[in-house]
């Protein structure tokens, strides 16, 4: 047996023939299990294991070795030298026990020559879970996300401000916003399906090119209007060719921006952080949310500062310069992300995807492909194991009243609240959102992503209920009820942003990588529909006195999201348990069963 072991170990160093590369191999412990060649002898007649009777393949620990009737001397001497970069781990085994058949019944005596395999400690497992798979690629992703999002947020503040300067009515801004949401609702499933079947880096470059081009077109239209349009009626403005071009370019720009966000937040960050490293993934999601909040604040502040010092046309030209400079920088950063992650972004792309991409890009079938993508996206979306978590995210988009925004600002200004208090409230909400990104990653580390998501929803629903009660029972024109009302809403942002981070990770874990963009695009599409519905409700109940009705709808939607998620968490399916097998919520039950069995064994 010792000679056979030495011969096989030496054969391990030989390069296998080309025809057998890439097959799975196995290890049988404690010794080597060599299968004799097929013969006409009966099954029970086991021939002696000799070197001349080796089968063409010998299985040893994930490495296939071909031994073609090799003599012992050939096996030991006639093998090619190893390459300098080729490292083969050498395992020193103790004396191999007797190779006689191993008795399986419990009463049999067992050999004591086996050694225990090393098992990682809890601290080592935690270290692995908190270490990203590709740290350098993840940092490059942060840089790309920061730079691209900063330019995008600056433009998101620039175009409405420019339109407000151009025309006093809110209708032009409302029209652009409406068609933007409509384009996202219709186009997100199509773009998501295309992104799932197209190489990541070329798609990333193309989307950035489309976004920058449409931003430049929109800026050019606004600059043209500011130089040529004088005082005109609202109907005359919205029917002008430059405004129609602005609406079309704005819709395409928003769709491209959301597609980039879905790709980086639902697909790229999962590959770079690691799907089986929940703590690292939670920390990466928290960093992306912090960068988003910082870009939202800095982008608006920078353009507001420019408007205070320069003419609006000059400010728009400066914004155009930033857009032009951003494109080559983003392209280079995309290549660096892929290079620093050992080309991880090139994975999961098969040659058969090219025909699907060509079919989706066929202009002659654009309507057919669009309807098919929406139908396919909806069917895939509703079959996901993590559907309740995604629907809870959609429900949160119905909260447009008890959140910092246009409706809340209009309410406070109508009640005669000081602008300083309104500004302080908006700033406090932003701070709470930033704090929530730190809390969410800590919650995931302590209780797992499922319980962390439930905690965020319950906190938000509870605090918004307090705000609703204060609004209906006391006058917010008085100082004490007003402060309680605003404080409850601001603190609810902790729960909202916590679930935003955790819910994203739940979808990242539960949605297959091949469908990440399709499902993410479908969720964005449905969320846009929810915002359109609430926008319609706000138009119907346009008087400030109807704010209580909108507040009830907002609280009901958040409470419904919390109830749905908790029901999903309390009644898990087998697929859910398998999907989140490493979550502490599903590790309690096996531990309890093991404790009960151990207790019963002690009693016996």
3D structure, described in words:
Keywords: Ion transport, Membrane, Transmembrane, Transmembrane helix, Transport. Belongs to the ferroportin (FP) (TC 2.A.100) family. SLC40A subfamily. One of its GO terms (molecular function) is iron ion transmembrane transporter activity. Pfam families: FPN1. This protein is mainly alpha-helical and 604 residues long. Among the domains are: 212 residues, Growth Hormone, Chain: A (Up-down Bundle); 187 residues, MFS general substrate transporter like domains (Growth Hormone, Chain: A). Helix content is 69%, strand content 1%. A two-stranded antiparallel sheet has the order 1-2. Helix 16 packs antiparallel against helix 17.
Strand content: under 5%
CATH secondary-structure class of the domain at 131-342? Mainly Alpha
Radius of gyration: 31 Å
| Order of strands across the main sheet | 1-2
Count of individual beta strands: 2
Structural class estimated from helices and strands: mainly alpha
- Name the CATH homologous superfamily of the domain at 131-342: MFS general substrate transporter like domains
The portion of residues assigned to helices is: 55-70%
Average pLDDT taken over every residue: 75
Overall geometric form = globular
Describe the oligomeric state of these chains in a short phrase.
single chain
Gap between N and C termini: 42 Å
CATH architecture of the domain at 131-342: Up-down Bundle
Outline the low-pLDDT stretches. Answer: 1-112, 589-596
């Amino acid at each position: 047996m010792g000679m056979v072991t030495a011969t096989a170990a030496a054969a391990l160093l030989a390069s296998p023939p080309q025809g057998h590369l890439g097959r799975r191999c196995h290890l049988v412990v404690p010794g080597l299990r060599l299968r004799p060649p097929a013969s006409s002898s009966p099954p029970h007649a086991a021939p002696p294991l000799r070197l001349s009777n080796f089968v063409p393949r010998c299985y040893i620990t994930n490495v296939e070795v071909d031994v073609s009737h090799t003599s012992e001397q050939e096996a030991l001497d006639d093998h090619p030298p190893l390459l300098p970069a080729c490292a083969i781990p050498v395992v020193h085994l103790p004396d191999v026990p007797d190779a006689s058949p191993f008795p399986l019944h419990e009463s049999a005596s067992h050999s004591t020559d086996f050694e225990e395999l090393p098992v990682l400690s809890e601290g080592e497992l935690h270290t692995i879970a908190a270490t990203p798979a590709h740290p350098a690629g993840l940092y490059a992703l942060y840089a790309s996300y920061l730079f691209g999002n900063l330019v995008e947020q600056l433009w998101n503040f620039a175009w409405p401000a420019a339109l407000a300067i151009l025309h006093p009515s809110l209708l032009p801004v409302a029209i652009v916003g409406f068609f933007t949401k409509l384009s996202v609702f219709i186009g997100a499933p199509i773009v998501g399906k295309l992104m799932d079947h197209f190489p990541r880096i070329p798609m990333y470059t193309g989307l950035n090119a489309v976004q920058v081009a449409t931003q430049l077109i929109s800026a050019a239209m606004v600059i043209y209007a500011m130089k040529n349009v004088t005082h005109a009626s609202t109907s005359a403005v919205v029917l002008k060719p430059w405004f129609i071009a602005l609406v079309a370019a704005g819709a395409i720009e928003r769709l491209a921006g959301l597609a980039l966000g879905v790709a980086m937040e639902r697909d790229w960050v999962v590959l770079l952080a690691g799907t089986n490293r929940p703590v690292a993934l939670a920390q990466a999601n928290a960093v992306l949310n912090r960068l988003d909040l910082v870009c939202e604040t800095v982008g608006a502040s920078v353009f507001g500062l420019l408007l205070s010092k320069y003419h609006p046309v000059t400010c728009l030209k400066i914004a155009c310069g930033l857009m032009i400079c951003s494109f080559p920088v983003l392209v280079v950063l995309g290549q660096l992300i892929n290079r620093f992650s050992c080309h991880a972004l090139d994975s999961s792309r098969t040659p058969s995807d090219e025909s699907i991409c060509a079919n989706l890009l066929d202009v002659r079938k654009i309507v057919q492909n669009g309807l098919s993508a929406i139908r396919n996206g909806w069917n895939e979306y509703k079959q996901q194991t993590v559907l309740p978590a995604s629907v809870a995210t959609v429900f949160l988009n119905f909260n447009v009243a008890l959140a910092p925004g246009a409706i809340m600002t209009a309410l406070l200004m109508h009640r005669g609240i000081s602008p300083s208090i309104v500004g302080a409230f908006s700033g406090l909400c932003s701070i709470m959102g930033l704090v929530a990104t730190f809390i969410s990653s800590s919650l995931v580390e302590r209780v797992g992503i499922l319980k962390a998501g439930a905690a965020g929803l319950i906190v938000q629903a509870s605090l918004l209920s307090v705000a609703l009660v204060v609004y209906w029972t006391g006058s917010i024109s008085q100082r004490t009820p007003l402060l309680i009302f605003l404080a409850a809403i601001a603190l609810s942002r902790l729960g909202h942003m916590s679930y935003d981070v955790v819910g994203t990770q739940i979808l990242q874990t539960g949605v297959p990588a091949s469908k990440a963009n399709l499902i993410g695009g479908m969720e964005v599409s449905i969320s846009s529909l929810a915002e359109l519905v609430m926008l319609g409700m706000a138009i119907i109940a346009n008087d400030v006195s109807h704010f209580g009705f909108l507040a009830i709808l907002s609280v009901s939607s958040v409470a419904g999201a919390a109830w749905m998620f908790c029901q999903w968490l309390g009644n898990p399916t087998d697929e859910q348990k398998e999907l989140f097998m490493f979550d502490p919520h599903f590790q309690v039950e096996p531990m309890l069963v093991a404790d009960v069995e151990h207790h019963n064994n002690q009693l016996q």
